[in-house]
Amino acid sequence: MFTPLAALSGLAALLASAISIIAWSRRQFAGVRWLALLMASVAFWAAGAMCELSVTSIAAKLFWSKVEYLGTLTTPVLFLLLALDYNHISLRRRGLALLFTIPAVCLLLAATNERHHLVWTSFQPSPSGHNLLIYGHGPAFWLGVAGYSYLMLLLGSLLLIRALHYFPAHFRGQSLTLMLSAVAPWFGNILYLTGAFPLQGLDPTPHSFAFTGLIFAIDLLYLRQLHLVPVARARAFEAMGDGVVVVDHQLRILDINPSGVHMLGGAPADWPGQPLPAPWLEASMLETGSHLELTTPDGGRILDIRAYEIEPFHKPARTRMLVMRDITQRRQAEDALREANLQLTDRLAQIETLQAALREQTLRDPLTHLFNRRYLDETFERERERAEREAKPIAVAMLDLDDFKRINDLHGHQVGDRVLQALARLLQQQSRAADIVCRLGGEEFMVVLPGSDAEQAQQRVEAWRRDFHRQEHAGEHPFRASFSCGIAALPGNGRALDELYRRADQALYQAKAAGKNCSVRAANGQ
């Protein structure tokens, strides 16, 4: 006898099966795997109820009741597992086995009810008709079936209430939807057990669970609320190192995480509705996309603040989210690094100065501060190449103090040093910027005269010689000193410095032989 009630149960079975298949294809999201298994169990329960409502004999109805008990006993447990998974609470295999222990025992008792009548005690046709049968229930039903099922439903509902209470306001719509859908099985089963349902003998619980699955499926397919895992979002929000504060247009706090409480330096008992405890942060600063870097009034920390506009829930209210990052340590590290860089730059400048001084010392004669032979060797080649490129002469004048040993013997080495310094001073004063004045060692000096030929060089040397000879030097008795000079020039006397040095030295020897205190030019050629 296929009745409309049997058709209704069949429709519920088809709906639950469809939901189970769709949910299984999206089982990677939180709670959806258990939703698929729950709907499969509901489909089995509703299909068994359809068969039980379609047969007429008590024996056949009792058989199908035993078959549908597989769905009746597992559905509440799967509902609890769905709620646990939705809250990201996982059970080990042993815990899962314990949850299904009592349903397994009750299923065994239902299968052997004829021996003990602990599940069903009596059977009588329903006065409501429609081929319904009213079952009398024994202690195993009230304790193991109804009692345990209600315990599972109660724990699952409490978990959904927990999510409803735990999440921020803008996430609570999802949990509220799931919570309302969980009320349907409670309502249907209570009507059945109390006999208050108009059709006595009809258990609407599988139909109620099919309705619950439909609500979950709507969330999954259309609202996509199960794609957002509020538990994970809420926990991430609480655990973030950055401070997050949601404020309205009057800077009243709508939501805040613990890091935000710590950064703002306060802990009011009830944050929502409280004004932002940061009078130094004005609303005018918080335009959308603004980026601020502020120091708290106590100077204790530096905050990097970014403002983002949130789609307002109640227009024209303007809701903004402030993301705050404590950059105090980073700024301190940057300041320390900047100070270290300044110190390093200063140290490098000092080192460069010292290196320049050391180089200067290696190129200067310490007594007269004139360039030495090393500097002459480094620079002469450059001057020679320039002279040849510009077709200009270069002259070198080698000077040697006359009777310098006698000056040291008669007046002492300190006086001799002052004579050397006097000659060096005169040469520096009367030489051009392009001239290179060097002390070769002892009483020997050399002056490189770029752009001058031998005759021009001798004219200048003679002027130096006369000026120097007019100077009086203080010793044991005032005395005058003189120098002799040999002059060689490029290109007539050679190209290399050694060649010019040798020819100038030969001319100097001639000047000494000619009576000293004079200058001699080297003859052209070798």
From TrEMBL:
Question: Which Gene3D superfamilies is this protein grouped with?
Answer: 3.30.70.270, PAS domain (3.30.450.20)
Q: Which GO terms describe its molecular function?
A: kinase activity
Q: Where is each GGDEF domain found? A: 392-524
Task: Look up the EC number in the record and give it.
Answer: 2.7.7.65
Tell me which UniProt keywords the record has, alphabetically. Answer: Kinase, Membrane, Transferase, Transmembrane, Transmembrane helix
Q: What class of enzyme is it?
A: transferase
Ranges annotated as spanning the membrane: 6-24, 36-55, 67-84, 96-113, 140-164, 176-199
For whether the record's keyword set contains Kinase, the answer is yes
S-adenosyl-L-methionine as UniProt keyword: no
Q: What reactions does this protein catalyze?
A: 2 GTP = 3',3'-c-di-GMP + 2 diphosphate
Q: Which PANTHER family match?
A: DIGUANYLATE CYCLASE DGCM-RELATED (PTHR45138:SF9), REGULATORY COMPONENTS OF SENSORY TRANSDUCTION SYSTEM (PTHR45138)
Question: What is the name of this protein?
Answer: diguanylate cyclase
Q: Which organism is it from?
A: Chromobacterium piscinae
